[in-house]
Amino acid sequence: MNQSFDVAIVGGGPAGSASAILLAKAGLRVVLVEKERFPRFHIGESLLPYANPILRDLGVWEELEAAGFMPKLGAEFVLSNSSSLQRFWFSDSLPAGYQRTFQVERARFDSILLEQAVRSGVTLFCPARVCDVSFGQDQLTLRYQEEGRGRRVDELSSFWLLDATGRDAWLARRLRLPQEPCPLPKRCAVYAHFAGVRRNDGRAEGHITIVRLPDGWAWFIPLDSVKTSVGLVQTVETFTQRRETPEEFFLRVQGEHRELSYRMRHAHRLSDYYVTADYSYRYRIVAGPRWLLLGDAAGFIDPIFSSGVTIALRSARLAAQYVRRAWLADKRAFRQSEQARYTRAIQDMTGVFYQMIRMFYDPKSFEVFMVPKPPLGLRQGVLQLLAGNTEPSFWIRWRVWLFYGICWLNQRWQIVPRLSYSQAR
């Protein structure tokens, strides 16, 4: 039997669940197809404050508060030899409602969102694998296979299709959409969950800690009172040149750097090691007459500033707005101008983080970032970016422009103190 819906969404992560909730609440008939059985492990565990309003609109904020997730009040960056620390507090310059968020174990966080989608009236096929899609004159047809039904292929029809399949980028690959060239080196992340990791004291216990290495970086994300997510990021070339297993690589790098050794001295692993390699990509086109790409399905650059879930939620809200407007106007396709506006909005959103990522990996720009007390309100501008503000006011933007200007100057003339990564004691 071919079931009919207004919107079909592929992927049940934050982007898929959020768009499904918003559209179902608006009165549309929504179906969501997810290939994995929940809960399941996923990386991307540190939220940003500028996603808070969306989480409240989705109706899950109170549930997140009751779930025991670690409150996140800020972020910090430290050199691998422990010689320099830059600590940010969201309360320093962010308005009420943005001064804290959460570090989340994605298995539970994603399940909370998906369950809220079902409570909102979304039809869920899970686990189910999408096989194909065909676009007709008035509707599209999605073919899928539910687990446990052998080789049976079912069909459903809808007016719009939202791809929220993350790095699988199912629709973009099927349509062979062109990618933007990415000038960043290919990188690799090795990560796991641990207990016994040394935490910060006091209110900073829930901070995400980024440890800058000479040729990469590490993250420490406290997920609850016991569990900490720890990951190492280096270039693919560095990772492969010694032919080490993920565990050998992780333990060697951990032992080479004072800050890592200090934090991991009494740690023991709770999960397998996971590896994600060559993860940077951006699609040039993220919208068509009847489809939109959301979150990581539209592109992913780098995890350094924890932008993944925030971009997923903000793109989900934007996609829901586009579909709802078309539905209210009794339109069943997006005009070319609407496709271009959506694509530009997604590119602008990711572009804010792309600039920050380039800054982080440039040694001279990172020296500016680590200046303890920068003048002219630069710290407030940087903090807004770290909090996930992709639409800053002019008051914030000019400080950000000035910050990047000083980075440019320091690339040419050494105007701030140099950073040393020497491990000598």
TrEMBL record:
Domain FAD-binding: 5-316
InterPro entries in alphabetical order: FAD-bd, FAD/NAD-bd_sf, Flavin-dep_Halogenase_NPB
GO MF annotations, alphabetized: FAD binding
Highest taxon in the source lineage: Bacteria
Protein name: Clorobiocin biosynthesis protein Clo-hal
